[in-house]
Amino acid sequence: MIKNKFIIIGAVIILIIVFAVLYLDSKNSIFILQNSDNHILGNPEAKNILVEFSDFECPACGEAYKELKKIEEKYKDNLEIIYKHYPLPAHSNAYLAAEASECASDQGQFWPYHDLLFENQQNLTRNDLLNYARSLNLDLARFTQCLDSQAARSIISQQIKEGNDLKLKGTPTFFLDGMEIEDWQNLDKILEEKLTP
């Protein structure tokens, strides 16, 4: 009888520990995903946070970009959308494009530049990146100096580290409130079911 009591108490303690670890792990994911270098769309006060790890040269990310434009409009009051860089080594222009987007961000133009990159994924050479900066009327000398100095590398490296810590398998990868979304093609449907009003 006493032995059975100890077994039950032990099982309850183990369950509590397992749930605590799972809870803290999901909280850690959310903590990792939120920092001062985030690029945010939607409502920064929203209860729900959608984080995308993406690559400007990734074809699937280009498709996700189109979907996100619709989602941003539909859920703008109830959702905070965060963009994170995760340029893949297989995409030769992705890292420089990520750097260029951060140089545009220095002049308050991250999102317009981001959109230009996704709308021109086949054209991401250095000259293309400079042309996009011109088209947005950025201070070209400042933009070029930023790009040449590699000043944005620390931001991109940190976000790549976050992605690696989360064991990303590729791009795009989405997290809703700290939980990975496996099927991003059905993102709108998932948001409809899970979004806090």
What would your notes on this structure say?
- This protein has 197 residues and is an alpha+beta fold.
- 57% of the residues lie in helices and 13% in strands.
- It contains eight helices and five strands, in the order αββαβαααααββα.
- The chain has helices at residues 2-33, 59-75, 94-105, 110-119, 126-135, 140-149, 153-165, 187-194, and strands spanning 39-42, 48-54, 79-85, 173-176, 179-181.
- Strands 1-3-2-4-5 form a five-stranded mixed beta sheet.
- β4 and β5 (179-181) form a beta hairpin.
- The radius of gyration is 20 Å and the shape is globular.
CATH class: Alpha Beta
N-to-C SSE string, H for helix and E for strand:
HEEHEHHHHHEEH
Write the CATH fold name. Glutaredoxin
Task: Report the CATH superfamily.
Answer: Glutaredoxin
Number of helices: 8
Give the overall silhouette: globular
Main sheet specs: 5 strands, mixed
Question: Assembly state here?
Answer: single chain
Strand order of the largest sheet: 1-3-2-4-5
Poorly predicted runs are: 15-32
